[in-house]
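RECORD TYPE: inverse folding
INPUT: C-alpha cells
STRUCTURE:
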C-alpha cells in the first residue's frame, strides 16, 4: 500500500517536483471543506489501498491549511488551481491532470498503472 506525503511547505513541494526527474509524483490537491473533495479523497485512498503503482510518489496538499503551497503548485506547474485536483508530474512537468468528479479509482488506475 502506498501512502501520501502531506506537503506543508513550498520547499517540500519544490523538492517533490525536482524528484520527479527520477520518479513520477502524483499531487492531490484537497479541500477539507468540500464534499466533492471528500469523495475524491476516498477515491484516491481506495486506489492507494488496492495495488497502486509503487513506482510513483504520492503527495497531498491541503488547499485550506496550506494555501501558499497550493498556490505555488499552480504557479510552478502552470496549471489553473482547482480543488479537488490530481496532477501527475514527470520530469518536473505536469503530464496529466483531472479534477472534481473525474477523480475516480478507475481513472487513476487507467492512467497510473500504465506508467
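DESIGNED SEQUENCE:
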Amino acid at each position: 500500500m502506498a501512502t501520501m506525503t502531506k506537503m506543508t511547505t513550498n520547499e517540500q513541494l519544490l523538492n517533490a517536483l525536482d524528484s520527479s526527474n527520477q520518479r513520477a509524483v502524483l499531487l492531490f490537491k484537497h479541500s477539507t471543506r468540500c464534499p466533492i473533495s471528500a469523495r475524491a479523497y476516498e477515491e484516491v485512498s481506495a486506489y492507494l489501498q488496492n495495488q497502486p503503482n509503487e513506482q510513483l510518489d504520492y503527495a497531498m496538499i491541503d488547499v485550506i491549511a496550506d494555501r501558499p503551497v497550493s498556490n505555488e503548485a499552480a504557479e510552478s506547474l502552470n496549471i489553473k488551481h482547482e480543488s479537488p485536483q490530481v496532477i501527475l508530474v514527470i520530469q518536473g512537468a505536469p503530464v496529466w491532470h483531472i479534477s472534481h468528479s473525474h477523480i475516480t479509482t478507475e481513472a487513476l488506475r487507467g492512467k497510473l498503472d500504465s506508467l
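NOTES: The chain has a mean pLDDT of 97.
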